[in-house]
Design goal:
- With 332 residues, this protein is an alpha+beta fold.
- It folds into two domains: 263 residues, Beta Polymerase, domain 2 (2-Layer Sandwich), CATH 3.30.460; 61 residues, Up-down Bundle (Methane Monooxygenase Hydroxylase, Chain G, domain 1), CATH 1.20.58.
- The chain is built from ten helices and seven strands.
- Strands 2-1-3-7-6-5-4 form a seven-stranded mixed sheet, sandwiched between helices.
- The longest helix has 63 residues.
- It is rod-shaped and about 125 Å long.
- 26% of the residues are buried.
- One of its GO terms (cellular component) is plasma membrane.
- Keywords: Cell membrane, Ion transport, Magnesium, Membrane, Transmembrane, Transmembrane helix, Transport.
- Belongs to the CorA metal ion transporter (MIT) (TC 1.A.35) family.
- GO terms for molecular function: cobalt ion binding; cobalt ion transmembrane transporter activity; magnesium ion binding; magnesium ion transmembrane transporter activity.
């Protein structure tokens, strides 16, 4: 039985770790799955949830740096560009919004770029690259740009995905703002902190990408065609807009949190006024009843025939007057 479980686990792990696609492109067109000596050709290898052994095979084939391979196997890297003698390494964060759980899903995408090779290692379900490859294959004039064109298309789609996620988060924040000022709904404190955490996680994934895009827009990254600097500059502008929107949403969430806290304090103060008013109304009857309940023999009007009715009437009148006063001052 343990051997069977181990076998099933290895099968599942192998199924998740896979070579998505590998092809050689010449003049923007897919030619075959084998390398070519034509200097205009380049290879695009796509891996998903790559294992150590699988990535090491490609390392031996393309002469990747050990530190770069280690980064590709890690899922806790920040977006960055590392320049090595053999190649350039670019780490990106993929983000998707799960409408079922209303959470954001963060993944990793690592790209090894050489003059005639681009290898992508994807961790997580966000941003499948099959559609990007298919779209480029349908437009050979764009694929002809080589690894630089592939990189630009990936980052452009990535930032577009950021825009979609921001729009979903904006809907969540707008709903929270409506709920905060809706008297018929309970205070959405837990929901507010949940969305606040999602905004922080999204910002953590998006903000660090600015520096790599600055380098790409400056055309100063080895193995990346400097003629594409304007294209990367346009993507950077879109990213900066996303960051501005995230910062604005975060500020709105802070304002909503403070408004919710203020409303809670106002409600608590109103409750305290009501409690104090009822205590004040009950204080006079309690005081008089306490005085006449001390069982002294010599007390004024203790033996008076109408004393009980007068005291009860007096208590009723005083209580009614106090009630009207508190009601007029909106304590009740």
């Amino acid at each position: 039985m343990p051997q069977l479980l181990l076998y099933l686990y290895s099968c599942v792990k192998y199924a998740r770790s896979m070579l998505v696609d590998e092809a050689t492109y010449l003049h923007g067109k897919r030619v075959d799955d084998n390398p070519t000596t034509d200097p205009a050709a380049f290879a695009w290898v796509g891996l998903y949830e790559s294992t150590v052994n699988e990535l090491h095979r490609y390392q031996a084939r393309f002469n990747f740096n050990d530190l770069a391979v280690e980064d590709a196997l890690s899922v806790k890297q920040r977006p960055k560009i590392d320049i090595y003698k053999e190649h350039t390494l670019i780490v990106l964060k993929t983000v998707a919004y799960d409408t079922t759980t209303e959470r954001i899903i963060v993944g990793d995408l690592t790209l090894f770029i050489e003059p005639r090779v681009i290898l992508t290692v994807r961790h997580g379900e966000a941003l499948p690259l099959r559609s990007i490859r298919a779209d480029l294959e349908n437009h050979p004039e764009r694929m002809e740009g080589g690894p630089t064109a592939v990189l630009h298309e990936i980052i452009d789609r990535l930032v577009d995905q950021y825009v979609d996620v921001v729009s979903k988060l904006a809907e969540d924040v707008e709903q929270i703002e409506d709920d905060v000022f809706d008297d018929e709904k309970p205070a959405p404190a837990s929901r507010m902190y949940f969305v606040k955490r999602e905004l922080i996680e999204f910002r953590r994934a998006v903000h660090p990408l600015v520096q790599p895009l600055d380098k790409l827009a400056a055309g100063s990254v080895p193995y990346i065609n400097s003629d594409s600097a304007l294209l990367f500059s346009d993507v950077r502008d879109h990213l900066l807009k996303v960051i501005d929107e995230v910062d604005a949403l975060d500020a709105l969430m802070d304002a909503a949190l403070h408004a919710n806290l203020a409303l809670i304090q106002v409600q608590q103060n109103a409750d305290m006024r009501k409690i104090s008013a009822w205590v004040g109304i009950g204080a006079v009857p309690t005081m008089i009843a306490g005085i006449y309940g001390m069982n002294f023999d010599n007390m004024p009007e203790l033996q008076w025939k109408y004393g009980y009715f007068i005291v009860v009437g007096f208590l009723g009148v005083v209580s009614l007057v106090l009630f009207r006063l508190f009601r007029r001052n909106r304590w009740l």
